[in-house]
Design a protein that fits this description.
Elements (H helix, E strand, L loop, with lengths): L9 E4 L6 H10 L3 E6 L5 H4 L5 E4 L7 H14 L4 E3 L3 H9 L1 H4 L10 H8 L1 H10 L7 E3 L2 H5 L1 H4 L4 E5 L9 E3 L2 H15 L2 E5 L8 E8 L5 E13 L5 E8 L2 H13 L4 E10 L4 E8 L7 H5 L4 H9 L15 E3 L1 H10 L2 H6 L12 E3 L8 H15 L1 H8 L2
Parallel strand pairs: 1-2, 1-4, 2-3, 14-15
Antiparallel strand pairs: 5-8, 6-7, 6-8, 9-10, 9-12, 10-11, 11-14, 12-13
Helix pairs in contact: 6-7
């Protein structure tokens, strides 16, 4: 065991969102000095009680070069034992600049070639198809594909950016003519894109495997989560998650992540194809899920796993975790309820009206850290009550 086990670390956390909150709590409870980076004071992490210090930097979504300059300057001029990312962009920044960043701090990022193999949807789907892992048939959206699109895929199809965040740029097209009409505009707006087999939604439940892989590229953790509800209701951000056991998903996730020699956290998304009842890989998010609090409640401390991996300690295998943990985002859940039809409300499980219980938790709110949720709501108000954002969203 290394001396860092008992040492109080200086940790830099690069994200302000809800997935940061359980990391902040875990490191604070362990006595570490934790500095969190925010792009606004109206955010979950800024309002949280757990950071030792808060930094206000440019948004990596709006000005990535400025964020990267701030990061390198801070690392060069401050003691930082461990730098942690829990978002897509910050994970990309650490992996891409790994050689320089590791001169000043420890990180858990895979090499960038491996990172791109997982994060790029086209490369991932090509790997899955080449290695006979279950996934939708996928092709690059280019002139050659468009010329033979009717021979390659049945309509409807899904079109997605090869790199992206959430559901941005993910569009369904019901006919070749409809896709052809939008083709040039799509590539100009989103860059390289893929066109993908459409998985029928009837009975097609969605899952995610929250995995953690050690230095030797061996998967040590795989927590499977069922995602019963979304907003928008027909596909978007999950509003409710439940821990389950699913040996098939665990086995597929192990084969995939160990095959591409992943390292650290990975969130692998799946959809159940009702045509053959197989869970099929949709994408790898190269970080923990936004609702990672569910893992901590289920008994897996992903923050400590990250610390152990960074300091070359043994990462323990987690072979069991608490099943039936129900973690919800009450804000998004309320929107789901308002927009869902009567049949959806009646048939959903776990039931919407189950707000309390020992293992029923909210992604944001906690009595131990009550103001973090307020930061989230204020950020949402700032975002959608801003007149320019309102016009951009509703008056395109």
């Amino acid at each position: 065991m290394h001396s860092e086990n008992k040492k109080k670390l200086h940790i830099l956390l690069l994200d302000q969102g809800r997935q940061s909150l359980p990391f902040l709590k875990s490191y604070s409870k362990a006595g570490h000095h934790i500095v969190v980076v925010c792009n606004t004071r109206l955010s979950e992490s800024w309002f949280s009680r757990y950071p030792s210090k808060r930094l206000l930097w440019p948004s990596y979504m709006k000005n990535r070069p400025a964020f990267e300059r701030n990061l390198l300057d801070y690392l060069k001029n401050n003691q930082v034992d461990l730098t942690v990312s829990v978002g897509d962009v910050t994970s990309d920044i650490l992996a891409k600049n790994k050689e320089e960043i590791t001169l000043y701090t420890r990180i858990t990022s895979p090499d960038y070639s491996t990172f791109i193999q997982g994060a790029d949807k086209l490369k991932l789907m090509q790997y899955c198809m080449d290695h006979e892992l279950p996934c939708p048939k996928t092709y690059v959206l280019d002139d050659g594909t468009m010329e033979h699109i009717s021979d390659l895929l049945e309509f409807p199809v899904m079109v997605k950016p090869t790199r992206g965040v959430g559901a941005i740029g993910v569009i369904r097209y019901d006919s070749p003519g409809e896709l052809l009409e939008a083709y040039q505009r799509l590539t100009e707006k989103h860059g390289e894109m893929i066109v993908q087999e459409f998985i029928p939604p009837e009975g097609g439940m969605q899952y995610q495997a929250e995995a953690f892989v050690d230095e030797k590229h061996k998967m040590k953790v795989c927590m499977t989560i069922l995602k019963p509800r979304f907003f928008p209701v027909n596909g978007g951000t999950s509003t409710a998650n439940v821990t389950i056991e699913h040996p098939e998903i665990e086995a597929t996730t192990r084969t995939l992540l160990e095959g591409i020699q992943w390292k650290g956290a990975a969130d692998v998304d799946y959809i159940l194809d009702p045509r053959d009842q197989r869970a099929k890989i949709l994408e790898i998010n190269p970080r923990v899920t936004a609702g990672i609090k569910i893992g901590f409640v289920a008994g897996i401390d992903y923050a400590d796993l990250t610390r152990r991996l960074a300091f070359e300690e043994e990462v323990p295998a987690v072979t069991d975790y608490r099943l039936g943990v129900y973690c919800r985002n009450l804000f998004l859940e309320t929107l789901w309820f308002l927009y869902a039809d009567r049949k959806m409300r009646k048939n959903t499980s776990p039931p919407f009206f189950k707000p309390y219980g020992r293992y029923v938790v909210d992604q944001l709110f906690s009595w131990n850290d009550p103001f973090a949720a307020l930061g989230f709501f204020l950020n949402m108000l700032r975002k959608y009550l801003n007149i320019s954002n309102f016009k951009a969203k509703f008056h395109k």
